[in-house]
Amino acid sequence: MAERSFKSEVEKLRLGAGQEFRGEAILAVTKALLQSGVSYVSGYQGAPVSHLVDVLNDASGLLKELGVRFESSANEAAAAASLAASVNYPLRGACTFKATVGTNVASDAIANLASGGVIGGALIIVGEDYGEGASIIQERSHAYAMKSQVWLLDPRPNVASIVESVEKGFQLSEISNTPVMLELRIRACHVYGSFIAKDNVRPSFGGRDALARPERDIGRIALPPTTYVHEQDKIGRRWPAALRFIVENKLNEFFDGDATDIGIVMQGGMYNNTMRALEVLGLADIYGNSRIPLYVLNVTYPLVDSEFVRFCAGKKAILIVEEGQPEFIEQAVNTILRRADIQTRVEGKGMLPMAGEYTGGVLKSGLRQFVEKHRPDLIAPAPDVDARIPKARKTLEGNLEGRPPSFCTGCPERPIFAAMKLVERELGPQHVSCDVGCHLFSILPPFNIGNTMMGYGLGGAAASALSGESGRRPIAVIGDGGFWHNGLASSVGHAVFNKTDSVTIVVDNGYAAATGGQDILSSSAQVESRSTGNPIEKAVRGVGVDWVRTLTRTYDVAKMRDILREALTTTFPGPKVIIAQSECMLNKQRRIKPLARAAVKRGERVVRERFGVDAETCTGDHSCIRLSGCPSLTIAPNPDPLRREPVTRVINSCVGCGLCGEVSHAAVLCPSFYRASIIDNPTGWDRFKARIRDAVIGFLQRRMDRRALASA
Amino acid sequence: MNKPVIDTSASTRVRPITIAVLAMGGEGGGVLADWIIDLAEHGGYLAQTTSVPGVAQRTGATIYYVELFPKAAARGQAPVLALMPVPGDVDIVLASELMEGARAVGRGLVTPDRTTLIASTHRVYSMNERIALTDGRVNSNALLQSCTDAARKLHAFDMAALAEATGSLVSAVLFGALAGAGVLPFPRPAFEATIRRGGVGVESSLKAFAAGFDYAANGGATLPAVKPADAVVESEFVRSLLASFGGKVTATSQPLIVAGVSRVLDYQDKDYARLYLDRLAPVAAIDAARDDAPDDLLSETARQLALGMAYEDTIRVAELKIRASRFEKVREEVGVTDVQLLEIAEFMHPRTQEIAETLPASLGRLILNVGWIRAVTDRLTRSGRVIRTTSLRGFLLLYVVASLKPLRARSLRYIDEQKRLSDWLDIVIAVAPKNYDLAVAVARVRELVKGYGDTHERGRAKFDAIMALVQKLAADPNGARTLDALRKAAGQDENGDALKRDIARYNLA
Lengths: 712, 509
What we know:
- The complex is a heterodimer of chains A (712) and B (509).
- Chain A is an alpha/beta fold.
- Chain A has 4 domains: 16-197 and 205-248, 3-Layer(aba) Sandwich (Rossmann fold); 253-378, Rossmann fold (3-Layer(aba) Sandwich); 414-587, Thiamin diphosphate (ThDP)-binding fold, Pyr/PP domains (Rossmann fold, 3-Layer(aba) Sandwich), CATH 3.40.50.970; 605-681, Alpha-Beta Plaits (2-Layer Sandwich), CATH 3.30.70.
- Chain A has 26 helices and 24 strands.
- In chain A, helix 2 (25-35) packs across helix 9 (159-176).
- Chain B has 4 domains: 17-221, Pyruvate-ferredoxin oxidoreductase, PFOR, domain III (Pyruvate-ferredoxin Oxidoreductase, domain 3); 237-310, no CATH class; 314-412, no CATH class; 419-509, no CATH class.
- Helices cover 53% and strands 10% of the residues of chain B.
- Chain B contains 24 helices and 9 strands.
- In chain B, the strands form 2 sheets. In chain B, strands 2-3-1-4-5-6-7 form a 7-stranded mixed sheet, sandwiched between helices. Chain B has a two-stranded antiparallel sheet with strand order 8-9.
- In chain B, helix 1 crosses helix 7.
């Protein structure tokens, strides 16, 4: 089960013609797919497109009614490969994943798909995770579109335009026999808005029809000599067909303005923020009417030469608003204008930054620079900065701390790294190869563990070149998500075959946790439409690992430490694999909290545990926090007038995972931690025991107090 | 060309209301943004929101951005709403915590010409603040000051306390504060209707909303009240002791001496309290001779001497754990109600070292120094113990350990500690006439010795390393500053790497 249920979202997918859909854009895209008559959808979760995958996972009833197959793919390559169904058959299909990490993994399948081309519309929906809040490398999907000749849509970031681009994308794909990539930036995916829905369309041609009458066309398979034919076909036929469709259907938009001697060209996705920057500068109104003519590229690849030639006629300069690098569009426009012998000056990365997100502030200053240079009459000089602003910022110097994401309260991954810290104290620092997943937070304080991260499921592979020598061996950390994504072959199988002397820790928390808690092969949850409960240990042994240890409770820090020490010091040859199991606490709490609340209401005996720290014995050294970093383990002013350092304090969000106690035992910390068990609806026996012990303890406590009083 | 009419004049054009919400993952920032959308849509406004949740859900800082635009002004042409704030163009910033409010200032989202900043003043400490070996907290006053300077209007108060008092979340208090600040064109009942439509935790949310509303309507900016340090009850005996204490006591040193002598008395007995004051007397005499100068040396020594004399041993820990007052504190902290039962379990890990130190010196030395005995006790104490203080067995075990108090003065640790304290105090007193500031610094170095087990041993080693340098610094006019710098360096990392580096840097190695 994913982090939460999406039943209410599924209801929105059932809206019919004329009804207003209100919600997030990525959900609107999901609705648009059903309206476009898709036969199948596949996807691999990841921000910002997880929602599409999650909602379709919960929509099995609706999908069955419509005859649509949805696959939760093993990885992005598998998701893209599923589009093969549109190669020979008039089936519309879509896949989705996070970009560019997903496009990287999927590129093999995308290249083969694009080479042979498609008959049915094939849409690749990528969530472009770029700019603030991105969790991945900063690259562009644009490069993938260019290298494989896949058309790239970058619609204006409002829900109606995005929905429109889905339908147009399918048509473009079919008319040009080319897969189409729909690029949605992170904020666009999460934008809340509305559009008028259409009825869902049941595909007229389904997978069953394809299986009944299989078609084979060797000309569509990428193997020489057809690959040479494919390349010619892309350039000679598919490309011109695409251009014709783009122009005839006005996919790109022109907006007039009275300053006809200059113009602004932008990616569709840049439209709203660019318009706001123009509005703030007094060059446009809030309704999108601009004084400067605009050319909005809802299709950023291929570019339409004739449209550029038309837009630049009579203009001394244009500004290209193109986020990310390299500046593919700006380079192309220079070529287009040069070839057409047009002298319009092309401004772009000279005024806007080459790298980094185009935020409101960045756009505002770049646009100002452009207008001040080419039409200074249009714009008032920049106002002076209010002196209070720099003063306020100066006051903040040294007082503002970063707040990157970290392990959640009670996270079962934290004790693994606490154990690694303890082993580090005994055996010295280790080389640790990390992987994608929540566990990558280990590279940050307080753990500061991890040397490299080479990609999803590649933790083990990235450690292999350092195969053990002179009694030292590398450690690889890989999550269950990464393990099933790619890790079983690339990290584990690889190490078996190459007899790599390494230690691989597989963090088995029961979900693809970092992407929102989706189920995977080894999840313990029972899901009707999926096969779960396939143990990682079985898979690891199956590919030939003989040294495997499974720890079923990661919170047992001492045991984790001992197993890790054994793995690092044993003379056993080849890869050593430790499977560290405990359920993701975020998902566990979502599962059990409502159950516990209901049980208390029903009058059942429920025990809730949480930890605490005695301020009187806490000496303010915070070594417990350095071995944990739990958000519930924080600091508070010292109540002791003789002490200055803040004491450690456990706040009420503590879920009683037990790590604090285990760490204080394993690391021999101070005796300040206590565990409080709070019993709701105690039984008669509970109350009887409590009465007896309270009587005895109370008597002794009063005696102590009397003695203390007497001696004071 | 058909030219559109573009109204860019500041006075007549209609502009959206721009709102940024800064929160941390899991704090309900998303719920708050959804409430604002619902409120606006029911109030005749178009609304758009975006966010960058992603991995930031996992406790990281995140921003939700909302724009509202009056439907009536849409003139058949939809407004183009932005997906992120333009610095200098934000009307309202809501921050769930003080540093997040300050972060909005740092990002330029809060400007004096237009921004109403509504922020909770409680602190959720960052990782670096929490993991410091000493005190890594940033300056809350600076954070609040920057908010005050940058905002057109600031509504800042402790919303976490209000949320806790009403059994709700900070987001509900913020929503109330947003209504109370009167910056949105919607009446209070419209806000409350939104909460009701949400249908989750309605009653507690409404209570939190009302609390936030009232605070914001009154305006102002206040930091959370700092709970005063535990007051020290001055017993009759302590008063009589102090009356006979020679030397000059000021308003600075007096409360520390009272706390110190009370601590030592509570720790052992009246004789031990007298010993404390006897040891302090020569220091007091030094300060008394300095006329009207502040008595820093007495204050610092009073503090450190008390902490040093009341070192934590197994007896002390056992005694503190079983007191009635401690049980009460735990009940309060974990919020146990009268109909619930509470059980407390302690996590202790006494090792051979700690056990031997508590025993009479001869016996303690035997355990530590005879190979096979030590091996046996090491084996027995290898893993930590969970002691249920609320069970009879656990309570009685700790009660027995606590009752060893009268034997403490004969213990190995006691003898060792007194010797070390005397040595330290002798140096403080010896240095003071020549270099008063250095003496104060030497007194303060004692704070490095704290904690238990490894922490204690590491602190002790750092303390010894610095104390060994005092002779070299005695004649140095900058000696005090150097010693303070070394003490701070010792607090930078566990292994003392920074200290070693600085000792080398000052050519003291």
